[in-house]
Amino acid sequence: MNGRTNVWYVVEKDVENNVVFVSRNYFSVDKRRRVFRAGSLRWFGGSPPRPRRRIRCKVRHGPGFYDCDMNVEGETAVVKLVEDDQGLAAGQYAAFYHESTCLGSGVIFDSWDDGGYPIAAKALDIAKLLRDKKVKLGKPVKIRNMETTTR
């Protein structure tokens, strides 16, 4: 789409259900996230950082870093940022640092809002409810599963 008023942002991906969530409003209270789960973890030292070690996280390609807490359980880690990030989404990379040294990285699987709910799951439930009940809230939105519509 062209023009500033028609800009859309990918605000979440639900890989399991093959759904991409888009919004025209990137900076919105309901899109703030600070907790995410990452997998495909790779550590330069061969093992994750020690518990309670102060680490920083960089998400996407942005210049900013976040102080964070990390709880590694097996092949995944739950990361809690000290500040909100509007753009956390499945499929993005997160890199973990101690001071200026990169400790390793992983792929974001999913993210949560402050209430502890997975963003994609909430949005998908609402979308399914609207589709199943044929509720109309303004212009209709078509939700389709690419697996069933692509040959």
From TrEMBL:
Keywords, comma-separated and alphabetical: ATP-binding, Disulfide bond, Nucleotide-binding, RNA-binding, Transferase, tRNA processing, tRNA-binding
GO molecular function, a single term: ATP binding
Residue stretches making up the tRNA-specific 2-thiouridylase MnmA-like C-terminal domain: 34-108
A biological-process GO annotation: tRNA processing
Gene3D superfamilies reported in the protein's UniProt record: Translation factors
Nucleotide-binding found in the keyword field: yes
Keyword match Nucleotide-binding: yes
Pfam (any one): tRNA_Me_trans_C
Superkingdom in the source lineage: Eukaryota
Protein known as: tRNA-specific 2-thiouridylase MnmA-like C-terminal domain-containing protein
Species of the source: Genlisea aurea
